[in-house]
């Protein structure tokens, strides 16, 4: 295994709370090892598959809107849970994470470890800033993503 860790912040910083993924990626600079790949994506499945190709661990940070949305509520999801959430959610992306995970599974291109950190969103209006609820949840979301990177690096450096 390569030990490669990729963090993907999915979203659009010009659309309010949808910018939370990119905001987390920016906040991780200097907080995680330099060899951690930090990227922002619009969530398009083929690009996502490209971004995580060859990675041992992928951490996805995403905005989530469910029918029972409570803005600022955090979720840490397995790929199966993320796919289940994605079926019943609205997304500001052309395709949701669920479609990306389904494509990755169909093509046998899922990474060995994938975790999704998501926050329930309130406002995705063009030009809006992060809502108060999401801004309040941001430090904990950053901590969760940082912890996932740390755990991945610890697993890679364990004696065999």
Automatic annotation (TrEMBL):
UniProtKB keywords: Aspartyl protease, Hydrolase, Protease
Statement: the UniProt record of this protein carries the keyword Protease: yes
GO MF, one example: enzyme activator activity
Signal peptide: none
Domain of life from the UniProt record: Bacteria
GO biological process: protein processing
Keyword Hydrolase applies: yes
InterPro entries: Pept_HybD-like_dom_sf, Peptidase_A31
NCBIfam families per the UniProt record, alphabetical: hydrog_prot
Family: Belongs to the peptidase A31 family.
This protein's name: Hydrogenase 3 maturation endopeptidase HyCI
